[in-house]
Amino acid sequence: MTNDTVVVLGGGGLVGTLMCSVLKQQGLHTRVVDCRAGEHEDERHQIDVSNPPRDSAQLFSNAIAVVFALPERVAVDAIPWVLQAVSMDVMFVPTCSVQGPFYAALRAHSAQQPCIGINPMFSPRLSPQGRTVAICRDDQGAAETFIETALIAAGMKIRRMSPASHDELMALCQALPHAAIIGFGMALAKSTLDLALIEEVMPPPMRTMLALLSRLLVNPAEVYWDIQLQNHQASQQREALLQGMECLIRTVSDEDYPLFKEDLQTVARALGERLDSGALDCQQIFSQLN
């Protein structure tokens, strides 16, 4: 046994695997706990964290931190089990896409347990170099933790924020675009047109939307379900998206071009300086697709 062990619950998943890689680069020992069988980890235990055995306390021996690389609800439910096996100085590290519920549940059980939330703002299948990781902390001015040091050493950029501000940001940056993409997919699925014909003639915007939809569909559905379900602020963004579509429907139905133009100008003003750089990004995306 070693005194620099980090237990990674759900370490066999994409985010868990990423965390194991980052931690091992810093010379830390990772102990993977996952319901799936696997190979090549330093130490692995095939256990369902939703139904752990009674004699599982030894899994956390010599642990300095426990990473909860689990779906939000599973992570929250696992808190009491982990608390009864660790000391008050062991750091909890949730990687949930929604951080508020985990923090609230942890504080209800243990007000002083150290906790630092991590949400990689990119797919773990991509290179982490230069990517941003959201760091959730109660005290944003506290000293840098070994987790943050490990992320920076692996080439990532960190951005600290409170759990509440994180969830508000994720509702806008994740839940809203995902909802728009899923809605697009549902409309596409209702079409009777031949997809081969669509692919042959589709312009760059359609191709881009189809690429976004395909990217979403090849990943586990539970990832996007948690983003929509667990973030209570996501409902506000879905409602705003619905209102935008209803406004568009009314405007077109009334053949009100001046209002249509005014609505677009309102959006453009909201983007501000980001408008020109966003247009350049789109041009580069279209060039790459073509």
TrEMBL record:
Q: Which PROSITE patterns match?
A: PDH_ADH
The record ties this protein, via Pfam families, to:
PDH_C
Q: Does the keyword Electron transport apply?
A: no
Supply the SUPFAM superfamilies for this chain: 6-phosphogluconate dehydrogenase C-terminal domain-like (SSF48179), NAD(P)-binding Rossmann-fold domains (SSF51735)
Q: Which domain of life is it from?
A: Bacteria
- Any one Gene Ontology molecular-function term assigned to this protein's record: prephenate dehydrogenase (NADP+) activity
Q: Which GO terms describe its biological process?
A: tyrosine biosynthetic process
* Source organism per UniProt: Pseudomonas auratipiscis
Tell me the ranges covered by the Prephenate/arogenate dehydrogenase domain, including all copies.
Answer: 4-282
Which keywords appear in this protein's UniProt record, sorted alphabetically? Oxidoreductase
KW ATP-binding (keyword) present = no
What protein name applies here?
A: Prephenate dehydrogenase dimerization domain-containing protein
Among InterPro entries, the record links this protein to: 6-PGluconate_DH-like_C_sf (IPR008927), NAD(P)-bd_dom_sf (IPR036291), PDH_C (IPR046825), Preph/Arog_dehydrog (IPR050812), Prephen_DH (IPR003099)
